Amino acid sequence: MDISELSAKLAQFGQEHLIQFWSELNEDEQKRLFNDLKGIDFGLLAKGFRRAMDNSSNAVKLDHLLQPVPVHLQGSVERCSNEQLTAYEHEGLKQISAGKVGVLLLAGGQGTRLGVSYPKGMYNVGLPSGKTLYQLQAERIRKIEELSEARFGQRGTVPWYIMTSEHTMEPTRKFFAKHGFFGLNERNVVFFEQSVIPCVDVDGKVILEDKFKIATAPDGNGGLYRALGQNGIDMIHVYCVDNILVKMADPVFVGFCLEKNANCGAKVVKKAFPEEPVGVICQVNGVYQVVEYSEISSETANRRNSDGELTFNAGNICNHFFSKEFLKTLILEHEQELIYHIAKKKIPFIDANGVRQNPATPNGIKMEKFVFDVFQFSTAPWAKG
Questions:
Q1: What angle do CA 145, 147, 153 make, to 5 degrees?
Q2: Cα–Cα distance between 349 and 210 in angstroms, integer?
Q3: Looking at the DSSP assignment, which residues form a beta bridge with residue 266?
Q4: Cα–Cα distance list, 372 to 17, 339, 341, 381 (Å)
Q5: N or C: which end of the chain has fewer CB within 10 A?
Q6: DSSP 178
Q7: Which are the contacts of 162, defined by CB distance < 8 A and separation ≥ 6?
């Protein structure tokens, strides 16, 4: 370990405080801290922090910039004929039968809000069967494979990518193993950890969680990109673990996106009421994105069309379609253009005296990129409700 070289690197970016306790660490602790720091691109981190802070400080209500998704880019189960829905389903099942569709589950969260300390997917939702979210979703994958085989005489595999976090990876692995992967082939269930990014204070200095450990948080991206490693997959369906009603690799949604030649699609639901706390998919300066409810005034939220429907009504439920080619282009050409969102949090830290502190008020910043941030780069988006 070349500590002098590391020290110079840290000093270059004003992060030399990260090794202030170096002489107090044992060999294993030094090795861990050295490897963690060596793997950080501090230049890129500083750039990401500055852009995120600039973006946050310039945040304003977006009302005057908003436009709804054009009608010709929308589809609706309510407005479609049975014949059209059947045609969408047929095409979706055809692609599933050919092994062209994968599913990506965003499952990094603990079940804290549900009153449990284990991963959300392991939660028993209270059905008479006692099935967990993971079991329900696994069985739906098996069922869609069976339906596609019955229709086309060929059983395609729907690979299931499960993006966990540092805290949910091991319990999730063990849970699936304990339950025999719920009848799925183990090789077709791929677990991976969401990548992380250092937590920083308001000046961009990385926070020490312990004398030998930096504070980190999930960075929100990376999950989509891992799915590209599967040979033969042309498209992927992305959803969140706590969506109990999710239709895995929904053939109607897949078929709809394919019929429209969409490289990016979002399944949405109508807002229940104007000020429902849910983000909406719309255009901002001609670019597609999800606008959070906090970014829209009450007046805009209550705006209605001539038919009485809310103008901004496409509620985002994190249920998306992406083509493999779209994600490849994103990685090669646009990944560095994505801007982090910031969240001010109470982050435990080691003070200058080496004492661990648990702040009573937010003292640090967690940065994250959301899955829907990529909408802006789509040249062929569609929304389906």
A1: 85
A2: 7
A3: 320, 383
A4: 35, 12, 12, 12
A5: N
A6: H
A7: 105, 107, 172, 189, 190, 191, 192
Per-position DSSP letters for 3-45, written without gaps between them = HHHHHHHHHHTT-GGGGTTGGGS-HHHHHHHHHHHHT--HHHH
Q: Using CB atoms within 10 A of its CB, is residue 365 exposed (0-12), middle (13-18) or buried (19+)?
A: buried
Spatial distance between the Cα atoms of 102 and 95, rounded to a whole number of angstroms? 10
CB 77 within 8 A of CB 85: yes
pTM for the full predicted model: 0.87
**pLDDT tens-place string over residues 69-100:** 888 888 899 889 999 999 999 999 999 999 99
Which single residue is written with the structure tokens 């999710």?
A: 246
Q: Which two tokens mark 69?
A: 């998704």
Residue 219 near residue 196 (C-beta atoms within 8 A): yes
Residue type, 43: G
Residue 333's SS3 state is helix
| Residue of 118, 109, 82, 313 whose CA lies nearest to 90 | 82
User: DSSP letter string over 241-296?
Assistant: TT-TT--TT-HHHHHHHHHTT-SEEEEEEE-SSTT-S--EEEEETTEEEEE-GGGS
The residue type found at 18 is L
For residue 358, the one-letter residue type is N
**Rounded Cα gap, residues 282 and 67, in angstroms:** 6
The conformation of residue 181, written as its DSSP 8-state character, comes to G
With both helix axes pointing from N to C terminus, report the angle between 169-178 and 133-152 in degrees, rounded to the nearest 10. Answer: 60
Strands 287-291 and 264-270: unpaired
Q: Are 201 and 363 in contact (CB under 8 A)?
A: yes
**Distances from the Cα of 198 to the Cαs of 13, 208, 258, 295, 343, in angstroms?**
14, 9, 39, 27, 13
Please spell the DSSP secondary structure of 46-102, one letter per residue. Answer: HHHHHHHHHHHHT----GGGEEPPPGGGEE-TTTS-HHHHHHHHHHHHHHHHTT-EE
Among 171, 143, 238, 195, CA closest to 39: 195
| pLDDT tens by residue, 102-151 | 999 998 776 667 777 888 999 999 999 999 999 999 999 999 999 999 99
